[in-house]
Amino acid sequence: MTALIRKAALTAVGAAFVGGALAGPATAMAAPAPNAVKATSVSADRKAGGERELNIRYEAQPNFFYCGPAATRNALTALDKDLSQDDLARQMGTTEAGTDSAVDITRALNKQTREGTYRTIEISAPRADDAQTDKLREDVVKAVDSGRAVVANIAGTATDTDGGTHSFEGGHYLSVVGYRDNGDTVKIADSANPDQASYWMTTEAMADWIATRGYSA
């Protein structure tokens, strides 16, 4: 593991959502939502125009530091695997300081699938270049087409396709559960706030959000 895939520390350090969704200290974030279920089917739904979405059983994180276990758990439901966030937190060594890196996410995903199914990809620079953006697009399309979600370690602020701003200056983990426009836009499942459980973002913006960190695909 390199220093470039850095710790996703307290999920919402400096977090602030535009539009009144979330603002304030990290301890005010992400109330438990044990019954927040988005779908019961886990098959991938292919649509015309280069679009595909995975049906996942969404669950919000119960505290400010469980974004890694929550994102991993949501991703695994696409493969019809139901693990608790507590079980995954133990596997990944999650503490109140967060989950160290995408490497820990990849290890947990491979434990529940097959060794080598997932791998960790770094985007080491402060911003993703064209090749790294193309690689992310390719990895998301390949994973989703095979029925698997991608888990990304992000940091900073990004804007979704509806103009909503999502800010996680201290780091955060998200699941990427679909794509459209042949992969130019990706669908995100975000465990931080069940009122904003999913949104779309351009792959270019997503790659820049991952920059200095990494993702599991």
In a nutshell, what does this entry contain?
With 217 residues, the protein is of the alpha+beta class. The protein has helices at 67-77, 85-92, 102-112, 130-145, 203-210, and strands spanning 44-47, 51-54, 120-123, 150-159, 165-180, 185-189, 198-202, 213-216.
Give an overview of the whole structure:
With 217 residues, the protein is of the alpha+beta class. The chain has one domain: Cathepsin B, Chain A (Alpha-Beta Complex), CATH 3.90.70. The protein has 5 helices and 8 strands. Strands 1, 2, 3, 4, 5, 6, 7 and 8 form an 8-stranded antiparallel sheet that branches. Helix 1 packs parallel to helix 3.
Q: What's the name of the CATH homologous superfamily?
A: Cysteine proteinases
Low-confidence stretches: 1-43
Shape: globular
Order of helices and strands: EEHHHEHEEEEHE
Helix tally equals 5
Strand content: 15-25%
Architecture per CATH nomenclature, i.e. the level-2 architecture: Alpha-Beta Complex
Distance between the termini: 16 Å
Q: What is the CATH fold-level name?
A: Cathepsin B, Chain A
- Radius of gyration equals 15 Å
Q: What is the CATH class name?
A: Alpha Beta
Helical percentage:
10-25%
| Domain module tally | 1
- How can the largest sheet be summarized? 8 strands, antiparallel
Give the integer mean of the pLDDT values. Answer: 83
Structure summary, number of beta strands: 8
| Secondary structural class | alpha+beta
